[in-house]
Amino acid sequence: MAWLLLAPPLVWAALILIFLRPLRAAWREPTLRHPVLIVESDDWGPGPARHATALHRLAECLLKYRDATGRPPVMTLGLTLSLPDSPAIRAAGPALPYQALPLTAPAYADILAAIREGIAAGIFAPQLHGMAHYWPEALMRAGQADPQVLDWILAGPGQETESLPSPLQSRWVDASVLPSRTLPEPEIRAAVAEEIALYTQIFGDSPAVVVPPTFVWTETVEAAWARGGVACVVTPGRRYIGRDAAGKPTTGAMGVALRNGQTGAAGVLYLVRDDYFEPAYGHTAERALDALRGKTAQGRPCLLETHRFNFTGEHAAALRELDRLFAEALSRHTDLRFTSSAELAEQYRRHGDWLETHLARRFAAWVARVRRLPRFWKLARLTGLGLILSGLSNRLA
Ligand SMILES: [Zn+2]
Q1: Contact present, 183 and 243 (Cβ < 8 Å)
Q2: In whole angstroms, how far apart are CA 180 and each of 102, 130, 244?
């Protein structure tokens, strides 16, 4: 019967072999030494003038707090740089060629001033969301077929892109038809060059970080960003390459998991943002604090995805939750670090001193990560391997 004693180790070895790829990926992802919290807020840019007030209110909230190093919380602003120039498009008549009204137009002066003030104070970190939150030709084609889209195009200067049909909000495909079509490469390259040039003109530096609108982008787009100096792409842990027949984002057959610190073919570094803080949908500070606790155990940064719509409408509850989030995060994690996504990406790229080198602490983070591989962890628990890994991690950490 002695052979029975060998059975569990053999089962564990088989389990590890079957899940080798995700287990190895979880080990290779660098481990952070400190809890890191970044609130990533998308869709800012041209809009109605009241958005400037919303930015000022956010700035007041952020400026109330400091981490142990004296740094205030950073809210990254995923910025679009233009809207349709509605009067010019209307004046051009029935053919309606697209024309853009940039963020630098007088109509948006208060918004741009509020963004610049926050950047100067170290609480806003600009990131490129896109020249626009749509592919202009696709928007115009959709406008020919859909009177509501045409109304939106002509409603400027302060229309909100959030009210466009979701597929049209993907910039890097033509979603005027579904399933979406890919865009011609020369047009992609020209569009990337144009958005980087305008961003650089507005902010003085080329964008370090891009957040692809609706997380739909292709390798061609990514390579063009890299050539334009972009160092980092924020992802939800995967890349969507288009919209399917129902309009849903699709990863295609080759969908692969992306992890923090991984670099793509063109050399850009990926960050993973898969926690959500949308108070307008009822998300509370506690939900965000749970995410922070989980990510901290995993040695990963907590990038909270949020959007301007939480703060530009009925905002009181959203600001209150944001305020509670910072207060509670600082009291629960005394070694919490606030930073920008660009700086965090630099830590990963140059193996900075925020990365853990202590083997036992890396192991504990690895166990916390593999507990989140549902099939693996279920089998690990059933076979006793889960107990051993958790016990080891508790003893070592
Ligand atoms: Zn967006």
Answers
A1: no
A2: 26, 19, 7
The CATH code of the domain that includes 295 is: 3.20.20.370
> What's the pTM?
0.95
Q: From the CA of 352, how far away is ligand 1's center (Å)?
A: 30
- Domain extent, residue 235, equals 36-355
Strand partners, 250: 242
Q: How far apart are CA 125 and CA 340, in angstroms?
A: 6
In the chain, the amino acid numbered 84 is P
Torsion of CA 122, 124, 127, 133, to 10 degrees: -160
Asked whether the predicted pLDDT for residue 110 surpasses 60, the reply is yes
CA 209 to centroid of ligand 1, rounded, Å: 14
Per-residue tokens: 190: 């020209």
| 87 contact partners, CB below 8 Å, separation of at least 6 | 156
C-alpha of residue 282 to centroid of ligand 1, in Å: 19
**Residue 299 corresponds to which tokens in the numbers above?**
């040695």
Distances (CA, A) of 125 to 7, 52, 208: 54, 16, 10
pLDDT in tens, 130-143: 999 999 999 999 99
- Residue 127: predicted pLDDT: 98
Q: How far apart are CA 14 and CA 380, in angstroms?
A: 11
What is the domain count for the chain? 2
